[in-house]
Amino acid sequence: MRRGWKMALSGGLRCCRRVLSWVPVLVIVLVVLWSYYAYVFELCLVVYLILYHAIFVFFTWTYWKSIFTLPQQPNQKFHLSYTDKERYENEERPEVQKQMLVDMAKKLPVYTRTGSGAVRFCDRCHLIKPDRCHHCSVCAMCVLKMDHHCPWVNNCIGFSNYKFFLQFLAYSVLYCLYIATTVFSYFIKYWRGELPSVRSKFHVLFLLFVACMFFVSLVILFGYHCWLVSRNKTTLEAFCTPVFTNGPEKNGFNLGFIKNIQQVFGDKKKFWLIPIGSSPGDGHSFPMRSRNESQDPLLANEEPWEDNEDDNRGLTISISYEAYRVQCWKSL
After folding, report:
1. Are residues 106 and 216 in the same domain?
2. Catalytic residue, candidates 150, 176, 226, 328
3. Is residue 150 annotated as a catalytic residue, yes or no?
4. Where do the TM regions start and end (predicted)?
5. Does residue 5 fall inside a structural domain?
6. Does pTM top 0.85 for this prediction?
């Protein structure tokens, strides 16, 4: 009887938590709906409405995609089979369990490890984690290329929707900036007492205040994520350096500025501003700088940034070649 009550209470708490998790999203939706009403119907700035609606459409479109694009989970080949799961759970010696995971990981394209050098294994999902995959305690699942769990979209940001999240931040900044700049002249009229309507005064004042407040916070967040994209890092990797088979490497996924951007937005620039999935790959494996260097020793001495100037490129190659000759000479 007591166990039944505990299960019912636990289920009720989970249900309440799911409902409450939508509160931040509801707040954002209400603020946006009010801003639309105040801007379009109260102020009725006809000259600005065409561009306003274009920005508004992309803003709401990317917000919708960020919320309702489900996080992508590892496919079945990364899960332990029933037999392997039984063997792993029945084995009591940690060193044997560790070796079992090493043997299983040899068949998979995984190159990152834990801080102690062990294979990254999720004991809740019973799978070997692909590179850049992490377990989200809120979503209760492993998410491919997990960046963070965002309460403002009530979703986990990862491989499947990171592009949409970046676009949402960009269009949010543009939306707030556009409202603030177009409403500012009316704010000056309000300050001088030239607005006769009391309702217009209220909407002008709060439109400018809310737009500026959100603009400051959003531009900082957007700038931070732009920096992450330029380095091909996730938020988790920025705080905790990924560990590879040959040790920690903070620039392990840094391929150069242009290629880093293409890892999120894809090769076709016509899709960069549209919330359509265009990220390359399947989210289970990613190109790594260390692997490129192992294939070509000359790359080890090059900077991770691409340079399009012929002179600088020739200089880099010549320096790399000299370093390579010295290295070969020392090995003799």
Report:
1. no
2. 150
3. yes
4. 20-39, 45-64, 168-190, 202-224
5. no
6. no
